[in-house]
Specification:
Elements lengths: L2 H4 L2 E4 L2 E4 L5 E7 L14 H13 L4 E5 L11 H15 L5 E5 L3 H10 L3 E4 L7 H9 L2 E5 L17 H18 L7 E4 L8 H9 L2 H4 L6 E2 L5 H7 L8 H12 L5 E4 L2 H14 L13
Parallel strand pairs: 3-4, 3-10, 4-5, 5-6, 6-7, 7-8, 9-10
Antiparallel strand pairs: 1-2
Helix pairs in contact: 2-3, 3-4, 4-5, 7-9, 10-11
Length: about 290
């Protein structure tokens, strides 16, 4: 890790973030018929672009476009995934937000970057090392996420001796791989991968000890939004009933150093993050009139 990795100020696409005092809100836009949360609500180019624009209007700094989910299922052909995500990226490229594409295929990454994406969000943690080559060649940024399964395959009953130690070791190894293949340190973001090949108790432990992940020195992204560990912690809550629990987990992570939160519920999360920033003294209130 170089000094650049620990710098709080990052230029990502059209935005500059000071992660010493700022939290970036990443809105999820899926172009999939079987998405985890919206069940295909945005599975059309115009609907996905409109959802991205609405998220930006609601305060999102960043749009994450997905064309194939991480969960087990039939493989999505590379050409089909490109057809799903590239028009959405192109439609949002001039909107002023950071655009990332959630993919584990180097070919999809290259096409998405050519269309205007700034970041590749690889939930397989560079399972294919060629992904690092694409990122290095194009100058894009990359999110390196912890997971254990090969793409789109099940990994039943994962077991860890110490989930946090093992996640940190994995991230350190994959970040080193990226850097060895030419990815600049200041282009790397890490994600511990809540619920990805993990039980609820694993995800809670990661949340509780997230400072051990943020101590790696790279900006840390947390993807907590409406996940099963939130629903199970609160009591068999359906995906639409996990907003408050998701916000609590996000705030907890930010107080331990997370600086990017990947979410479905944009307005609520933006308000929660801006409130944390105000309490911490990282930003001024929008106006002051109470008891003035």
């Amino acid at each position: 890790m170089t000094a650049a990795a620990t710098s709080a100020v990052r230029r990502i696409g059209p935005r500059t973030f000071d992660f010493s005092r700022q939290v970036a809100v990443m809105a999820i836009v899926n172009r999939t018929p079987d998405s985890f949360y919206d069940r295909g609500r945005t599975d059309a180019t115009d609907l996905a672009v409109d959802a991205g624009l609405q998220a930006i209007a609601a305060g999102a700094d960043w749009i994450d476009v997905g064309g194939a989910k991480f969960a087990p299922g039939p493989a999505v052909p590379v050409a089909e995934e490109i057809d799903r995500v590239v028009p959405v990226v192109a439609g949002l490229a001039e909107a002023g937000a950071v655009i990332s594409v959630d993919t584990f295929h180097p070919e999809v990454a290259r096409a998405a970057i050519a269309a205007g994406a700034h970041v590749i969000n690889d939930t397989t943690g560079l399972h294919d090392p060629a992904m690092a080559d694409v990122v290095a060649e194009t100058g894009a940024s990359v999110v390196v996420t912890h997971s254990l399964a090969a793409p789109r395959t099940p990994f039943p009953s994962p077991r860890y001796v110490d989930v946090v130690d093992e996640v940190v070791a994995f991230l350190r190894e994959r970040v080193a791989l990226a850097e060895a293949r030419g990815v600049a340190s200041d282009r790397i973001i890490v994600d511990p991968g809540h619920d990805l090949n993990k039980h609820t108790l694993d995800s809670l432990e990661l949340t509780r000890r997230l400072r051990e992940v943020t101590a790696l020195g790279y900006p840390t992204l947390v993807a907590l939004s409406n996940k099963d560990f939130v629903g199970e912690s609160l009591g068999r809550r359906d995906r639409g009933e996990r907003v408050e629990g998701s916000l609590a987990a996000a705030v907890y992570c930010v107080l331990q150093g997370a600086r990017i939160v990947r979410v479905h519920n944009v307005r609520e999360t933006v308000d929660a993050m801006r409130m944390v920033e105000a309490i911490e003294g990282w930003r001024e209130p929008v106006f002051l009139e109470h008891n003035q």
